Amino acid sequence: MSEKLCPWSLKDVAKVFLLYILMxxxxxxxxxxxxxxxxxxxxxxxxxxxxxxxxxxxxxxxxLYIFYIVSRRCSTSGRIGFTLLGSGVLTSLxxxxxxxxxxxxxxxxxYFLALPLLLxxxxxxxxxxxALHGIxxxxxxxxxxxxxxxxxxxxxxxxxxxxxxxxxxxLLFRGFLQPALREIVGAWKAVLLSALLFSFVHLNIYVFLQxxxxxxxxxxxxxxxxxxxxxxxxxxxHNTATLxxxxxxxxxxxxxxxSADLFGGQGTLLx
Length: 271
Fold this sequence. Notes:
This protein is mostly helical and 271 residues long. The chain has one domain (10-261). It contains ten helices and no strands.
């Protein structure tokens, strides 16, 4: 990573997370409730479409707010010529294509080396849960994905969960949060805290360990390379593999329950 100081602070990060929480916890439920009252016929497809559109809007709003904050902080730090989506702002957040082939290959190698650990963590959590007579719960995105029958909605869900969602999460947790944490607690504690927060926001205790391990991999890749190329691609690959497995084996996934989260870490529709 660059030795330059991060121009934004944890206060800036807190503002973004507050906006995110308010949109998810307050804005989205209110809008959905209003839509249900207006609509004479509330169908599952209608609800799924509404949630997807709202989630897409919320993630886009978070990305733009991050770009806005970074643009302002960079310009007030004595750097001239930054625009909202200027190259300087993008580079500050790790959105750079420099050495992308090498970083991409390193990211893929690390991910495939760690994949047995991710799978093992999933099976371990399932075994312990069932041994304690618990019932593992799917993540919301998994449940909706298994229940959805509309090809259009499934395509939209794949786009968001496999592409747009990972981009937003990597921008927020690695590109924006991690550098601010590094300034206060140092590089490796920042990697750990970034992974912890990443797993917390998915709001599912049964896949917490898997998501935490995935978060460690992504945070380490960002710390090592200084760009989001490898973390974003690995995150997209991970989610795409997970959802493809679920789509191809719906009956098997339903039967084995928590093993639907075989790969863990796929972002929930609202998280």
